[in-house]
Amino acid sequence: MVWDERVAALFRRNLQPTLTYWSVFFSFGLCIAFLGPTLLDLRCQTQSSLSQITWVFFSQQFCLLLGSCLGGIFKKTLSQSLVALFASSLAISVVFAIIPLCHNVVVLAVVMAVAGLAMGCIDTISNMQLVKIYQKDSAIFLQALHFFVGFGALLSPLIADPFLSDTNCILSNSTLNATSNLPHIRKSLVPHHPGNLSHYELPIKGMVVTRVSYAFWIMALINLPVPIAVFFLLYKERLVPCFNNGRRPLLSADELAMESQPAEKDSQSVALQRAPPDRGHDDLFSCCQSKNFRGAPYSYFAVHVTGALVLFMSDGIIGEYSGFVYSYAVEEPLSVVHKVAGYLPSLFWGFITLGRLISIPVSYRMKPATMVSINVVGVLVTFLLLLIFSYSVVFLFVGTACLGLFLSSTFPSMLAYTEDILQYKGCATTVLVTGAAIGEMVLQLLVGSIIHDQGSYSFLVCGMIFGGLAFTFYTFLLFFHRMYPKPSSEVDASSPDKPATMGDSGLYQG
Questions:
Q1: CA-to-CA distance for 504 and 275, rounded, in angstroms?
Q2: How confident is the model over 460-483, as pLDDT tens digits?
Q3: Could you tell me which residues come within 8 angstroms of residue 4 by beta carbon, excluding any fewer than 6 positions away?
């Protein structure tokens, strides 16, 4: 892939902050995927029941949603953003380190709630900062950002796997009866929905035998360089009080954009620099204040809402498919053996990560709107084919891989597209991140209840409905994009040589 000199210059000047945000998102991925595989060992450690331990899932997801809503609070200055990222990434390492010390399920739920808050802040702030730096060139860097979360999500289960118990980790008289069901139970656990697993009687009293503590300590060490990297960025920006020697910080994103322009654009760049800063990218509650709505056209609200609804559905599909594809496969009519069906969630996440890697060069050549169009149509067609060939085990694996590819780049492409429509004003990043987090939590709970009542076939029907709704909402977004007023500047908004209009001119100013 060959970049044009302007984008390459922006990347070189922002190399350290960009790599730092990517590494912080690796922390996010590392933390988001470890809980499912290790939950049975944590159940033994806390000597709790299946229904009790799944509340740990819920506490993490709910606080992740809360953290996503509140993350925009820290956007006002670079100092606040970096301090929040430092605290959040350090909190994840601390959480990994102290999980083995939690022998009560309530304490464990509180610890995972702290991890959820940290993950939510990381999700909002990292996306927000990359959008601020690169603006109209942000799509490729957002694709790379979300590749790192996929990489972390793949790595943490691999780290945990050698330390998971092959037999019941609480030794008692009933251990032998439950041991043969452990792989099935482990793959079937989803957030706060033990479902039809309640008839399995796992012991809660007896001698605890588990080595999962080593997995968490290894993950804590792997994650430790991330807060160190954030601290070094704080230090380089002269934002650490005891190390502040008065040197000038790195250039702002405005100045970087102006430096990369040809000489004949100078007068236009100066005019943009003098333009009053625009309030945007606040936390969700600040976004909802009436003073931010005055004078805004209805299409302004419609773009926020429809963009969030698309991600509500697409991220909800990721959550419900990864959570229930195993349970769907092992039940009739497919009746896949447990060991083979266990590869399906890994295949799904593997192709999500592969798709994000492929999307990095593709997003440089293809507009975000085009990528989202391909994604939502691909998801809809894949679910339709999965329904048609619902009796084929082979096509279930093929469809799972295709679905992972189509869903992989939806979030970063939608974020880049929506921010571009709004000219980097408003609260698009916060609203979209929050909508995606709500969708992942709510749709998973909804589908779990429907499958429990209606049977396994409803799993694909729900996916088809959600895919259709995502396509519908995206169609509305395209319509509202046409209705949204174009920039009043004489500079052509679609020109790649146009300097990005900053919504927050103080990005690299402490």
A1: 11
A2: 999 999 999 999 999 999 999 888
A3: 496
